[in-house]
Amino acid sequence: SSGFEADALVNLPANYGNTLRVEASVDGPLPEPQMWSGEFTARADGLLPQPWLRGRVAPGTRVAAEDVEGKLAGKFEDGRVTGFDLRLDSELLLATRAGRTVETPYLSMRAQASRDGEAWRVDLSRFELDDDEQMHGQLRWQPLAGGGYDLGIESGLLKFDRLLPWLEYARELPPALQRAPHASGEIDDLVLRLHHTTEGNQYSLRAQLKDLALKSEGEAPGFSGVSGELSASDAGGRFAIEHGTPTLTLPRIFDAPLALDELKLPLQWRHLPEGWQLSAKQFDWKLAGTTGRGRFALLLPAEEGASPELDLSANLAAADLNRGKPSMPRHWSDGLTH
Question: What is the DSSP code (8-state) at residue 306?
Fold first, then answer.
């Protein structure tokens, strides 16, 4: 058999960091890398994040860190990487732009990846900010013959409060994530399964939502205090608020946020031939001295240009209507007064 050892120490450009050391132990003939098997390790210290993130942060963003150290240790067979362990630690880490700053005194991350044939599994075993665990979980990815893939994600913990504000400094966010930096809360016991093919997607999702909130900006709506159990698929889903006390902010409609004293809402949705149906067989609420109970079904037609159809029934009781005045809409249709 043949093989060789490699050991290289590279002095990085001053604006990129201090040093990068790469070590490898390889079995296989030197001129035929497709036959190489062995192990490798790469260590970097004193990394400076700004140049590494160039093109990934918004213009005018400055990213700084202290004592950044990283280590990547892995194995390869027949010229292909089969697994690796990743460690990343940093002292003070901050991003600033246009007078706004987000920072953390300490970051620590640990991840492991392994390959089985064409499939990959990645485990995020640690992601901490200032010794406060932010998330952990597992990802599985399997390509499919003929195109497409199966994706599985499981996460026991995902905190938004300290993670999402960093997205404000990203160069580009998809439209669905434009307001994500203003969200907070926690998602527990997340399980996502996605089957993607050229013919479309099939998915299933379940999670526990804990105190989710989205800050209202300008005239954009917002909410807070949303907790419940979510389950969904491409055919429909359910979100149950058992004993919630959420607050809803609708600046275009109400002068003040609507702070519910209690809400019980078993919300369901289904994909029907005629469109999507959103419904609640029974919902109960307490708000500003009022109590109520009702049901509703809303059909969003699949036919282009067709109007939504709403079936709503509700009973309301109030001991003192004056307490409800702050919750009245700002504007009323012609012919209505308050």
Answer: P
Contacts 24+ apart (CB under 8 A), 203-206: 203/232, 203/233, 203/234, 204/231, 204/232, 204/233, 205/230, 205/231, 205/232, 205/233, 205/237, 206/230, 206/231, 206/232
Q: What is the DSSP string of 67-82?
A: S-EEEEEEEEETTEEE
Q: Compute the distance between CA of residue 87 and CA of residue 71 in angstroms, rounded to an integer.
A: 5
Distance CA 293, CA 93 (A): 50
Give the separation between CA 94 and CA 111, rounded to whole angstroms. 22
Most confident of 69-73, 281-285, 303-307, 315-319: 69-73
* Three-class SS state of 177: helix
Tokens of 333: 């249709």
Whether 206 has a pLDDT exceeding 50, the answer reads: yes
CA distance 284 to 317: 12
Q: Is the Cβ–Cβ distance between 172 and 160 less than 8 Å?
A: no
Per-residue pLDDT tens over the stretch 24-64: 999 999 899 999 999 999 999 999 999 999 899 999 999 99
Q: What is the rounded distance in angstroms from the CA atom of residue 304 to the CA atom of residue 314?
A: 30
* Dist. CA 309–CA 279, nearest whole Å: 12
- Please name the residue that has the structure tokens 């999402």: 164
Q: Which residues, 6 or more positions from 180, have their beta carbon under 8 angstroms from its beta carbon?
A: 164, 167, 173
From residue 259, alpha-carbon distances to 243, 288, 314 in Å are 14, 8, 19
Three-state DSSP class for 175? helix
Look up the pTM and report it. 0.85
Q: Cα 304 vs. chain centroid, distance in angstroms?
A: 31
Rounded to whole angstroms, the Cα distance separating 17 from 46 reads 5
